[in-house]
Amino acid sequence: MPVSRDVIIIGAGGHAKVIADIVLKNNDNLLGFLDDNKPKNDVVLGYQILGKADDILSYANKAVFIIGIGDNYIRKSISGKYNVTWHTAIHPSAIIGVDAAFGEGTVVMANAVINVSAKIGRHCIINTGAIVEHDNLISDYAHISPNAALGGMVNIGECTHIGIGASVKNNITVAADCVVGADAAVVKDIAESGVYVGVPARRMDLK
After folding, report:
1. DSSP code of 77?
2. What is the pLDDT of residues 128-161, one digit of tens each?
3. The domain that contains 62 carries what CATH number?
């Protein structure tokens, strides 16, 4: 049996509550939340707000941490600001293939599939029911939304967000700093950052 960890979540909104559920289902010990927008000693899911994000260092020797914030760039900023131990949380119902690997701070939600030899970077979100097929490379701070599906040997760039229900054809590369809209279908490489929508996915004009 894995050793139980003492965990603190940064953020206390909806995404953080989903992570809290994963922590508890893994029989880890949730100490509470750090959140800049809620008062100290407020309660979320029965657990206290322990302070603000900058209070993290006072707990650095007592716990490991997960950033429970959906915005990719905020996760990147927070992870670079604090030198603490980051925890990786994987829901017990997720299916994890042989030789799959995960960077620190990443979370994998319920019923996600991470297939064989997929490599997931640091502080990524693999959301509920997402499919990350074999030999994918998901770069740091990316977010694969609920029910999104990535074919085999897909490469997703840093901070890119793949929207709900979107699909990415096998052997495709999607650049960093992209947003692929909900239900979009990416069938050719995306080399330029931007927002891509539709079937097939096309870059939205900036006006």
Report:
1. H
2. 999 999 999 999 999 999 999 999 999 999 999 9
3. 3.40.50.20
**48-83 pLDDT per residue, tens:** 999 999 999 999 999 999 999 999 999 999 999 999
| Domain interval for residue 57 | 6-81
- Separation between Cα atoms, residue 35 and residue 102, nearest integer Å: 25
Distance from C-alpha of 71 to C-alpha of 73, rounded to nearest angstrom:
6
Q: What is the DSSP string of 140-186?
A: TT-EE-TT-EE-TT-EE-TT-EEPTT-EE-TT-EE-SSEEEPTT-EE
Which pairing describes strands 47-51 and 29-34: parallel, antiparallel, or unpaired?
A: parallel
| Total structural domains within the chain | 2
What predicted TM-score, i.e. pTM, was given to this entire model? 0.95
β-strand partners of 195: 179
Residue that is written with structure tokens 């979540």 in the block: 9
DSSP category for residue 190? B
**Positions marked active-site:** 134
Q: Which two tokens stand for residue 92?
A: 């017990």
Tens digits of residue pLDDT in 64-73 = 999 999 999 9
Q: Are residues 180 and 102 in the same domain?
A: yes
Task: Name the strand (E) or helix (H) holding 6.
Answer: strand 6-10
Q: What are the phi and psi torsion angles at 79 (to 5°)?
A: -65, -30
